[in-house]
Structures are given as C-alpha cells and as structure tokens.
Amino acid sequence: MADDLCFFIKESLIVTPKKSPLVLRMIVLIFAMVCGIYIFSICLKQVSTNTEDGFSSVEVVERPCEPPNVEAWEKPYVHYPKPKTFKRAECACSPVRLFAILSTQRSGSGWFETLLNNHTNISSNGEIFSVKVRRSNISSIVETLDNIYNLDWFTSASKNECTAAVGLKWMLNQGLMHHHEEIVEYFRAKGVSAIFLFRRNLLRRMVSILANSYDQNAKLLNGTHKSHVHSADEAEILARYKPTINATLLIPNLKQVDDMATKALEYFKSTRHIVLYYEDIIKNRTKLNDVQDFLRVPRIDLTSHQVKIHKGPLSDQVENWVDIQKALQGTPYESFLHQDY
Ligand SMILES: *[C@@H]1O[C@H](CO)[C@@H](O)[C@H](O)[C@H]1NC(C)=O
Ligand SMILES: *[C@@H]1O[C@H](CO)[C@@H](O)[C@H](O)[C@H]1NC(C)=O
Ligand SMILES: *[C@@H]1O[C@H](CO)[C@@H](O)[C@H](O)[C@H]1NC(C)=O
Ligand SMILES: *[C@@H]1O[C@H](CO)[C@@H](O)[C@H](O)[C@H]1NC(C)=O
Ligand SMILES: *[C@@H]1O[C@H](CO)[C@@H](O)[C@H](O)[C@H]1NC(C)=O
Ligand SMILES: *[C@@H]1O[C@H](CO)[C@@H](O)[C@H](O)[C@H]1NC(C)=O
C-alpha cells in the first residue's frame, strides 16, 4: 500500500512539469525518501516481532558458548547455567554436569562428600533435604533442585564460577523413594546423573546408627553430639559405647535396608548412574578416579580430614555379640559377622 501511495503522488507531480523543475525534483526526492523510511520502519517492526515470537534469547545471540567437544549421547548432560546471584565470569563457557549422591544414613556418604568437595571443580552441597519443608511436596523438591543446579544455592562447598559438577547428598528416605516417579522424570529432563553409595556390611551400618543415635542424647564429646569426627581421639571416645542389638528384629531390619537399596536401583535404572560401595572406596582409593571420570572432571588425588569411628572386629563393638552371632548364622547375612570395615 505504501508503494501505491508513493507511486500515485509521483505520477500526479510528474504530470505538471511546467513549474520550476528543480523544486519539483526536490519534492519528488523528499517524498521518495519519506516513503523509503516508512517502508524500512515497517520491515524493522516485522523483524523484531519475529525474534520475540521465536525461542532465541538476546543473550544467546550475543555470547554463544562453543559447542562442547562431547559425544552425542552426552549432550543432554552438559549445561551452561546462568545463576541469578552472580556471574560465572571466565568459566561462563565451561560446561557444568549435574549429579545427586543417593545413599542411606551411616553409609560413608558424609566422608565421601568431603572427598568430592576436595576437588576444585566439584560442589556437593550436603544433605539439603534433611530439612523437612524442602521435601514436603514435589514442587518444593523441584524448586530446591532448580536452585542448586542453577548454582544459586550457597554452602561452604560452593565453588561458584568454576564449578564443573554440582550436586547434593540425598538419603533414600528423604522423599526420594516417595516421589521417585517425578524425580526420575526431573533427572531425565534436566540430565542429572546419580551416584549410588551403599554400604555392603549392613550390620556395621547398624552399629553406627545405634551409636550415633545414642550420642544424640549422651553427647560423649564434652557435651556436643557429633556424627563425624576429625581426630583419632574423638573417634576412640565415640567407639567406646557398645550398643545392644535387638536380635529378634535384626534379620527383618537388615532385610528392609537391603530391599530399599534394591528398589532404589530399580526405580532409577533409566537414570545415568554409577554404583559405589563404601567398603570398596576404603580399600581402593582409585575407585575415586571412576567417580571423577563419571562426572567428567579432571582426575586429582582427593583427601578428607574425617576419621573413621568404628575400627577393628565387630565382636568388640557390640554388647550382645553372642546373640547376634546366633541370629545370623546360617542366614544370607552371616558374612557380615566376619567382614572388615
Ligand atoms: C584438598 O585437600 C588438600 C589437603 O588437605 C588441601 O590442601 C586443599 O586445599 C583441598 N582443596 C579443596 C578445594 O578443598
Ligand atoms: C508445598 O510445600 C510448600 C512448603 O511446605 C508450601 O509452601 C506449598 O504451598 C506446597 N505446595 C503445594 C502445591 O502443596
Ligand atoms: C576448574 O576450576 C579452575 C579454577 O578453580 C578453572 O580454571 C578450570 O577451568 C576448572 N575446570 C573445569 C573443567 O571446569
Ligand atoms: C574436651 O575437654 C578436654 C578437657 O576438658 C579437652 O582436652 C578436649 O580437647 C575436649 N574435646 C573436645 C572434643 O572438645
Ligand atoms: C526386641 O524388639 C521386640 C519388638 O519390638 C520386643 O518385643 C522385644 O522385647 C525386644 N527385645 C529386646 C531384648 O529388647
Ligand atoms: C582399584 O580400582 C580400580 C578402579 O576401579 C581398578 O581398576 C583396580 O583393579 C582396583 N585395584 C585393586 C587392587 O582392587
């Protein structure tokens, strides 16, 4: 329509050439320019509405990160978070992987997490879902996870801009089994990998639970309850307490924990995962290389200052050892009586 209008004006001007040709030419020129600007502005408007409708955001257009040098299957696991609370600075274009350590209480996950956090590029933010409101429903869980994986969650473990792997420690009984369907779907959609950490010797785990729960009231270390210690002296004090295990409930309890681990592996079998055992890491620290490879971070030697509390034969650590021996003999759990760690 704009073109028609210009053409019409041009025509009507050209049919009266008798007047001053210079002035007429100037008028034609000015009209042509005005029409040109008008058409150009319409085109601009159309271009800008197109970009608003589309999915490309201005930031992506401005600073595209180099596509990562990864195989096709790995693409969904690579992220470039844009935290709300800070700029990733020189690491803005280094990829970030998301993970969750899925474990059970007293299975060495605290120790394992301090080892991971000794890596310059790993931020594992602790047992975030030990706080009940954060796991009260799936929307709180998702909101919390989104914050963590967007690097907007701050703990002493946060490495901020140069984090290459970010995650948390999550106990199976902290909403994970209950909301497993939604969480598996979240892990799939967001590309989260799972690190299962279990303890093989569930009898030793039971001793650790009973002792830890006793200490919650007894507070053996000068009136403070500690679940993890950093010196041999402290470990020795805590290990002096010998729990009595209810022999009747022993087998059902062990079976229940065993079943929960099996069920968790079944639920999360479609999630990219690795399964680790506490005992294997204690015996062979090179297992930690497998974890670093799994998280695609450079391999380094990882250290922790935590000290193991219960050491030596189990017979020294349980008050009613004879009953326990009797209860387990001839059952699938008999080997727990003899295994180290
Ligand atoms: C890892 O542990 C070593 C030895 O304790 C320590 O010097 C280093 O600062 C730790 N690194 C991180 C990132 O915590
Ligand atoms: C989920 O839990 C949070 C925190 O307890 C609460 O504020 C929110 O209303 C709940 N949402 C739904 C959908 O129940
Ligand atoms: C690890 O962190 C360092 C700085 O702390 C950074 O220079 C390096 O690029 C990071 N590595 C990865 C793989 O992100
Ligand atoms: C407990 O107190 C004793 C002395 O009263 C002190 O030597 C020891 O370091 C304290 N231990 C802790 C864990 O605070
Ligand atoms: C073991 O637990 C059962 C069931 O709770 C209880 O009836 C029994 O008295 C307990 N035995 C001991 C020795 O505490
Ligand atoms: C230690 O673990 C690594 C990695 O999983 C494995 O290749 C190696 O054979 C193990 N070494 C021993 C002595 O078990």
Automatic annotation (TrEMBL):
Key words, A-Z: Membrane, Transmembrane, Transmembrane helix
The protein, known as: Sulfotransferase
SUPFAM superfamilies: P-loop containing nucleoside triphosphate hydrolases (SSF52540)
Keyword ATP-binding appears in the UniProt entry: no
InterPro entries reported for this sequence: Nod_factor_sulfotransferase, P-loop_NTPase
UniProt entry tagged with the keyword Glycoprotein: no
PANTHER family: PROTEIN, PUTATIVE, EXPRESSED-RELATED (PTHR32175), SULFOTRANSFERASE (PTHR32175:SF0)
Chain ranges passing through the membrane: 22-40
